[in-house]
Amino acid sequence: xxxxxxxxxxxxxxxxxxxxxxxxxxxxxxxxxxxxxxxxxxxxxxxxxxxxxxxxxxxxxxxxxxxxxxxxxxxxxxxxxxxxxxxxxxxxxxxxxxxxxxxxxxxxxxxxxxxxxxxxxxxxxxxxxxxxxxxxxxxxxxxxxxxxxxxxxxxxxxxxxxxxxxxxxxxxxxxxxxxxxxxxxxxxxxxxxxxxxxxxxxxxxxxxxxxxxxxxxxxxxxxxxxxxxxxxxxxxxxxxxxxxxxxxxxxxxxxxxxxxxxxxxxxxxxxxxxxxxxxxxxxxxxxxxxxxxxxxxxxxxxxxxxxxxxxxxxxxxxxxxxxxxxxxxxxxxxxxxxxxxxxxxxxxxxxxxxxxxxxxxxxxxxxxxxxxxxxxxxxxxxxxxxxxxxxxxxxxxxxxxxxxxxxxxxxxxxxxxxxxxxxxxxxxxxxxxxxxxxxxxxxxxxxxxxxxxxxxxxxxxxxxxxxxxxxxxxxxxxxxxxxxxxxxxxxxxxxxxxxxxxxxxxxxxxxxxxxxxxxxxxxxxxxxxxxxxxxxxx
Length: 538
Fold this sequence. Notes:
By secondary structure, this protein is α+β, with helices and mostly antiparallel strands. The chain has 18 helices and 21 strands.
């Protein structure tokens, strides 16, 4: 079994967390109770796939600030020595069109409301994963989430922070009867829960039970689909039961690029994982390990800008793309991008990525199975649409459609938009090293690049790879940098023409998780210091 060599000690800017080692099983995610739900499944005899589904369902309950039952999902699964990819992002309603927007007095896709709501894929992802690879039934894997929703749970600190922040701004933005169920669910007393305050949702508990016992068919063909359809018709939405019933997640082959002797894997478009691969393909041509930290940061930022320039122009529903993913990873194309990197910051083609919120988790069991899984509404709570009596909070992924009819990502019926959420996976010599991911809208491929480089160029361990201070390219020459970054790096980037803003607290730098498999099949896990990150293991 292959493994990575890394320094067991922490990065100088450490969160004071240490790598977690285990042998029989591990769950890494952004919320302790969700990690425990996955670990419980492992301890009862479930495998890594069961644990991933249990954790994902629990996250819809305990971290509604980033995901919900109405989310989309993607997964990379390593099962019995083989890799599988799952695209469970949903298409737009068949009634969606530019004309449908114009009829409602809209000239662009709104952030909130029914218009950006596409078919949710998360429940279908849970069912598909369990049906193909699971040891337990879907109902068994959702038991932990049902208990959390019905019995209540104490809200964790970071989730509370984002919850309270949202409830300060959303009442002004979500005006209309269609948003009343949202506030009844998430602010029943007129405010967001404080850290440690109990929160429960009996509606969500009942819905999760229905999804579990029906293998998710209730959500797409049964009573839950009827409720979604009825509320959409009542409040001006375009999503219909026929859209839900027609939906099936897609099993696909992940795509990869070679980097420092390893293969880095991502889900192909309509996800933006190829942005990370393009950036890494460019960086493979530089000796980052022997560069100064100042020069290394400049080259990484430039490679990322160029990769986004390509991704934002080309990524779309695969049926609408003008080029194949393999064309964007071709050596000659990567060389042409590499040749554009010089000593000064470049101005990429105009673009302004949006921001978003997501949950990421990874799991591993003692039999060698591993899962990289990501699930999201978008922009925090999503569309602001909650289906009455169900606890179903719907995503707003359609917001990423282009309003340019000539763009491959142009708005259209039954079409999947450019999607920000991306699970990552690393292999070496054909064997699994393990899953990794960094959530956070358009930060995600940037986080993937930085974490992979930390591990493979600098030899940092999983925890140290996540602890290291991050940057995020925003648009043009503008870059946000965490205040823990060395002043010499910040100064050097400014001298090279980058427009740098140092963020002293918080910031949109993503939240990651890593599980690497080492020699003797020992699992080594790192969790995100920027959130309520937890590793549960045994």
